[in-house]
Amino acid sequence: MRRYKITLAIVCSLFWATSCQWNNENKEKTETPAVETKSPSEKQPVKQPENLTFSKYNYFKKSYIDDNTKLPGCTIDIHISYPSGGNTGNTSLNKLQSLFVASLPDGMQESHSPRTAVEHFVKNYIADYQAEIKPYLKKHKHRDEGWMNYEIIVKSENLYNADLFWGYSIETYTFTGGAHGMTTTSYNVVDLKSGKALSLKDLFAENDYNLINRMLCQQLADDLDTSVDKLGEKSYETENIIADDNFMISDKGITWLFNPYDIAPYSTGTTRITLPYRAIVGYLVADSPLKRIASK
Fold first, then answer.
1. CATH code for 199-296?
2. Which residues make Cβ contacts (< 8 Å) with residue 225, sequence separation at least 6?
3. Rounded to an integer, what is the distance from CA 217 to the centroid of its chain?
4. Which residue, 160, 154, 199, 152, is CA-closest to 54?
5. What are 26-68's pLDDT values in tens digits?
6. In this structure, which long-range contacts are made by residues 262-269, counting pairs with CB atoms below 8 Å and at least 24 apart in sequence?
7. What does the alpha-carbon distance between residue 154 and residue 127 come to, in Å, rounded to a whole number?
8. What is the DSSP letter of 51?
9. What gap in Å lies between CA 239 and CA 179, rounded to an integer?
10. At the topology level of CATH, where does 44-197 sit?
């Protein structure tokens, strides 16, 4: 009898162990697998930006003669966007900022730092304005005339930021008396591989310049739905339509910008002429950096 009880106890124990093992195996099959997580202290991979990143700086100031709001004054309004990080290619950030400052209006080149350059410019602009207007006011018994209220507005805009190229514009409006103010725009293209601001000679051989000029005239005529010999009827001076360093790149072609008075009267405004890559790629010099995108 005792042997029977012992045998029964052993059988029950084996059955219980087998049942637990089956439940555990079945449970492992039906539970959702745990997701592997990393410790917060482990560094996560950071994706580097493919292109440049930028910082913006805005500065506005209205300065009156002798700080008297009843007297004439000058207005300075500046909005710039300059490289502050991202993929700078083979060019240092300091070099890019120096190139940017160099392309700003005259008087803003006293520092390689864009912000410091603007602050120095504002100080000098106000001093020059006061030195010019105060003697006139004194002579004419502080008579306020509209032309005495000078104004300068500077805006930069990033237009191309890919393929290790950075293209941007600087638009400047100035009023220093006269019938109207004047707006001018400069285009700038930097090759981040070489750290160089591109010029016309980086695109074409000198003996092809006249050909490119003729292409520009023809393209402008096409844009205006007319012929080259009739551009004069639209107040354009074809002899002044000459390719220069004031160009911008895009995915489709090269755009030259002509400011008022460059090739037409002030009333015509700014003129832009774009030559598609398909028309000019064959004329690019052998080592032109622009072949990176023109040959796509």
1. 3.90.640.20
2. none
3. 28
4. 160
5. 443 333 333 333 333 333 344 445 799 999 999 999 999 989 9
6. 263/236, 263/237, 263/238, 264/234, 264/235, 264/236, 264/237, 265/235, 266/180, 267/235, 268/235, 268/236
7. 18
8. S
9. 27
10. Heat Shock Protein 90 (3.30.565)
DSSP string of 120-186, one letter each residue: HHHHHHHHHHHHHHHHHHHHTTT---GGG--EEEEEEEEEEEETTEEEEEEEEEEE-SSSS-EEEEE
> According to CATH, where is 3.30.565.40 located in the chain?
44-197
34: number of Cβ within 10 Å: 6
pTM: 0.82
Q: Whole-angstrom Cα distance, residue 272 to residue 254? A: 10
Above 90 in pLDDT, residue 8?
no
Task: Please tell me the distance from the alpha carbon of residue 161 to that of residue 165, in angstroms, as a whole number.
Answer: 6
Residues of the chain within CATH 3.90.640.20 domain(s) are 199-296
Give burial (CB, 10 Å; 0-12/13-18/19+) of 210.
Answer: exposed
Using CA atoms, how far apart are residues 115 and 275, in angstroms rounded to an integer? 35
R_g of the chain, CA atoms, integer Å: 34
DSSP letter string, 192-214: TTTTEE--GGGTB-GGGHHHHHH
